[in-house]
Amino acid sequence: MSATAAPVPTTAEVAQTPERRDDLALIADLVAEGSRVIDIGCGDGSLMSLLESRRGVDARGIELSQPGVNECVRRGLSVIQGDADRDLVHYPDGAFDYAILSQTIQATENPKLVLAELLRIGRRVVVSFPNFGHWSVRFSLFFKGRMPVTRNLSYAWYDTPNIHFCTIRDFVELTREVGAEVESAIALNAAGERMGMRMPWWFWNLFGQQAVFVLKR
Q1: Are the CB atoms for 104 and 40 separated by under 8 Å?
Q2: Contact criterion met (CB below 8 Å) for 59 and 52
Q3: Cα 23 from Cα 129, distance rounded (Å)
Q4: What is the DSSP letter of 194?
Q5: Coil, strand or helix: which one is 39?
Q6: Dihedral through CA 69, CA 91, CA 14, CA 146, nearest 10?
Q7: Do 20 and 151 touch, CB atoms closer than 8 A?
Q8: Residue 174 and residue 112 in contact, taking contact as beta carbons nearer than 8 Å
Q9: Residue 99: which of 60, 130, 54, 63 has the closest Cα?
Q10: pTM of this prediction?
Q11: What does the alpha-carbon distance between residue 162 and residue 153 come to, in Å, rounded to a whole number?
Q12: In terms of C-beta density within 10 A (0-12 exposed, 13-18 middle, 19 or more buried), how is residue 173 classed?
């Protein structure tokens, strides 16, 4: 992290908030057994542990915070301290079957660059993020004139680590800009349950609180 940059959140920090992580089990179900995985911003290693126990993967992690790295090491996980915005360039093309970025893209300094790097080093990329287009967010802005604080966006505007909010439709547009193919996409409702598979993007964009995308080149 540069000296002038805003603090970059980690999944460990996110996990310590009241936000529920409904996406973790879903991501684990999307990853093929025995695959080689890198979890960017792995935090305390919760997802890596789940992937190893449930899917038998070879999991590696990158985490910025020292407490997160320490917790991963305590769990016996393979992790290095690094920054998603700067350190992905050191990995070779196609080094992993899956590159995962869970609930972190909105906190990176350059989401487009990070996504492009993920697509370079992973044969498939899994990204999950909170949907800023959810109706409750729109309601708060339109009727209350205030930045929303919801279950999945639990920070006040003055202390949020999230610096690049996006909607589901915004993310779909970004996938087109970086030349990614959306292999599958899932929206989760307020209860953390999957929404209908054949819903149009506008419906997911309005009623989905979180989204999980699987991308490839």
Answers
A1: yes
A2: yes
A3: 9
A4: B
A5: strand
A6: 150
A7: yes
A8: yes
A9: 60
A10: 0.87
A11: 9
A12: exposed
Count the Cβ atoms, other than its own, within 10 Å of residue 158. Answer: 6
Task: Answer whether 104's CB lies under 8 Å from 41's CB.
Answer: yes
**pLDDT tens, N- to C-terminus, the chain (217 residues):** 333 333 334 444 443 343 457 789 999 999 999 999 999 999 999 999 999 999 999 999 999 999 999 999 999 999 999 999 999 999 999 999 999 999 999 999 999 999 999 999 999 999 999 999 999 999 998 999 988 888 778 888 898 888 899 999 999 999 999 999 999 999 999 888 899 767 888 999 999 999 999 999 9
* Element holding 148 (H helix, E strand): none
- Do the beta carbons of residue 208 and residue 132 sit within 8 Å? no
Which residue is listed with tokens 């196609």? Answer: 94
- Tell the residue number behind the tokens 């979890």, with chain if given: 39
